[in-house]
Amino acid sequence: xxxxxxxxxxxxxxxxxxxxxxxxxxxxxxxxxxxxxxxxxxxxxxxxxxxxxxxxxxxxxxxxxxxxxxxxxxxxxxxxxxxxxxxxxxxxxxxxxxxxxxxxxxxxxxxxxxxxxxxxxxxxxxxxxxxxxxxxxxxxxxxxxxxxxxxxxxxxxxxxxxxxxxxxxxxxxxxxxxxxxxxxxxxxxxxxxxxxxxxxxxxxxxxxxxxxxxxxxxxxxxxxxxxxxxxxxxxxxxxxxxxxxxxxxxxxxxxxxxxxxxxxxxxxxxxxxxxxxxxxxxxxxxxxxxxxxxxxxxxxxxxxxxxxxxxxxxxxxxxxxxxxxxxxxxxxxxxxxxxxxxxxxxxxxxxxxxxxxxxxxxxxxxxxxxxxxxxxxxxxxxxxxxxxxxxxxxxxxxxxxxxxxxxxxxxxxxxxxxxxxxxxxxxxxxxxxxxxxxxxxxxxxxxxxxxxxxxxxxxxxxxxxxxxxxxxxxxxxxxxxxxxxxxxxxxxxxxxxxxxxxxxxxxxxxxxxxxxxxxxxxxxxxxxxxxxxxxxxxxxxxxxxxxxxxxxxxxxxxxxxxxxxxxxxxxxxxxxxxxxxxxxxxxxxxxxxxxxxxxxxxxxxxxxxxxxxxxxxxxxxxxxxxxxxxxxxxxxxxxxxxxxxxxxxxxxxxxxxxxxxxxxxxxxxxxxxxxxxxxxxxxxxxxxxxxxxxxxxxxxxxxxxxxxxxxxxxxxxxxxxxxxxxxxxxxxxxxxxxxxxxxxxxxxxxxxxxxxxxxxxxxxxxxxxxxxxxxxxxxxxxxxxxxxxxxxxxxxxxxxxxxxxxxxxxxxxxxxx
Length: 817
Description:
This protein is α+β, with helices and mostly antiparallel strands. Helices cover 16% and strands 34% of the residues.
């Protein structure tokens, strides 16, 4: 028996089962097997398994030249709390591991021998969760549970290295229930699609927009993945005309660290907060509140770009805004000096202004295009910096005379990515060029941007500079550090409360992608004397910890109710799944707006509990509705911020085709009216028999009860003609006695019928005179017939555009009801 037992033990030692490791937090139990794979991740409370069956889940993968190498063995030193992973290429990774209550911390201590490894990948970690995939924050959630990862170092970035170093994401054909896809695209569901809202003004409703790739949708649920690159290794990225040399920096993959967690879905933000405070990640506070919990992050705010900076504070007070964005305050981008027409004494004047605003309870924000560098900046002119970013370099193949217009280079590959400015740098001279032919750069402009024309010897280095997209340039990854510190200094010197990092994506042009973004914003943040709010048009995983809100979506591509509406709503879905405050983007308060336009914005703001930027300048003084517009902003935002609207009302607000009017009844109480607008019914010239008036007929449906007639008329010019007129206007509603407007009416005239009177207005809705009419008819419930008759002075008499307005019964809103 003893002999048999002895041999059995020997056999067990020779063929022992692979080592398994179990790690727990307050909420999850994680098991890893002897080959270095996660084989189980369960919710401790319910024993729910969160790793899909049969799906590989390596703790740490290696990457080289688009090939991923997975671990083949795992051993665990319990006393040192270290896991050793071995790979078939002979490499061994030592990973520190520690359970820290709400999360498990992993850190790569070493990898040797490297065997040419370029990057390491945490995961990918598959999960069965698919409802809310937080591609930026790195959290996936359903109704009950959440799983997430957080990068703990700036060189641990989202995605996988094969997809490049940008945050990833994109637009995909992926309709929500009830959304229709054109027949021609039905076989392309799930595939990427171009969606340029700058060009098109909006995106189709069936397109989903993902702004990152840390968490991605999979057939079994989702994947979570982070990676870290050895950035000391020189690289070339792109191909053809997009070739770019990537400047190496001292950032290794050793030291890469992550936090892995699982928790009840409603506790995800709590766990991330513990990770931030426990790991030394940015944890910004505003007024004593973590910014991820601060209601200020989703407040509406004002942008002012008018003539007198003092008016900005006045408009902010009229709209009850607590933040006013005053736009660009810099003499140039790069050195970011502040001596401008608005602020001739620079930082001193800005500081006085922000102090005055603070006394009024108003914060001041400013705008910059981040690292975009203007051609008027000293980093460019008259002596260009050697740290301007370049896509690549060659050498002169021939001597270059001071006035030569053709530059001969040994290797033209780097110069085919022309950009807008098409600029090379040789010594201290910038030279523009128009084309590339064989080894020649042709059509050269010598001494570009006030640099000095010079002669250059064969063999001299020729740099192709990277264009910023605004006819300027960008700093390299080392000079961008100087920019980050300078912009922090601007905040500290001036007291501004928000830095709007527009153009943040340009940091990725370094070739280092989100690492460059992380490095910039981390350096800016850690050089502040106190937290400043920050926003921009994009964000990334690490920036998520620092930024206040993301806000973009511009108002000038189409009419208000058409410009980027689907895009704005799609952004709200992005914010929800990424635990971000809601923002609807930018709007502008036009001098031609009526209250309906502003109330349309407010209803969408209430629908998604989302702030917005409202752009205002002195042109608003022309608007006859100015007081009503600001009152609508104040009252709607007060109702939203006090959570006065019911769930049912908010659901109705989410449909952008629904319109509403909010009327203040008392402090903290309102009446809410549903509104239907039927717009742009057109009465225009057409050939008629002699003596017969031009006649137009319309049928409109009133979905509410009978009510006084309300409408607007706008006289629009035909082919620019502003002299011809319309006279003898008669508006007959349901066969009742006509409403008569004698005229003459010319292009630009407007009319309001408010149910009691009719007023002729100028082009900005200022009342010129009341039109004397008898008793006004009523809209009847259901269908109404409108007949319009008039005389035109000629074929180019103005078109009369009618907007018909119906209002429903009031719903009570607020604490008094």
